Amino acid sequence: MKNNIIYLFISLFLFAACGEEELTPSEPQEFYEFPQGDAEYDQEILAFYEEYGTQFLYEFRESDFRWNVTDYIPYYAEQGDTAYVSEAFHFVTEECFSIWEDDFLRQLLPVHVLLASEVYLPTEEYEYTWSDENQSWGYEWVYDTLICPTAYGLNHVTFGYTNEQITGLTSEEKLDLIGDMAKSLIAYAASRDKIEIPEDFSELFTTDWNTEDLATYTGDYGYNASGFLEYFEDIDVNYDFGLYVKYLVTMSEEDFKAWALDESFDCNGEWSNSANAYVRSELILQKYEAVIDYFQNTLGIDLHSIGNQVSTLYQ
Predict the structure, then answer these.
(1) What is the pTM of this model?
(2) 164 half-sphere exposure, CB direction, 13 A CA radius
(3) What percent of the chain has pLDDT over 90?
(4) Mean pLDDT across the chain
């Protein structure tokens, strides 16, 4: 009996060891002393945490920003400029978060809001360029970075304007930042099951748009014809859902419909032999209706009402 118990423990140990070899856990998130300083804005950040349970961090490591359990998000971020933390904190809380009812905001908020001086996405394109060295035209890879206003990860939403630009924003730039923060907050919440993307929307989601023209072309074969409001190479259903919210909360109902639902933009469809005509599927209209209906009837939120108010404030 004793030997049987010993063999049992040995077997369990070997099974656990084999299981550990198969797993590839990522490094854990790092934690910080909080608040991160003793400035007046640190006390405001602490007060926000005590009320909402979310920490604003302006000092963070790359692993905290990019860590996503099994891989890393493609974005990069630089720590916030402490000279502009106060302005960034107030912009996020008073202009971005204030568009939502308090109870719903609490439902959406992540563990951390990171205040970054810059958020960017490395890009590469195969372009036809002139070579001074060879004195000829040819194709080559061109590397660049795409500056992103906001981003989201496993446990954070990041604001990328904690720098001197925050003090001189135009009304149009403020409106775009408010919308982009709404996109990241909603996409984050959907990715963490804090809100549920309606089935109708998910069924309409498609990434069948693998041509070079899609990045810039707006027309029959552009990103809009695939039902997207913006081009993003690695788009997923959470990001797509967030994009609809971005524009709905920063545009009036009239302006949104005149732009997004116009047949020149919402142009997905196919040729019908029976009708001898090009028949539109109105893919963007269908997605739009799924978003509006979910927020209105499930969450009790009128996105058009928010958009009408916000767009008026920043005219």
Answers:
(1) 0.81
(2) 0
(3) 60
(4) 84
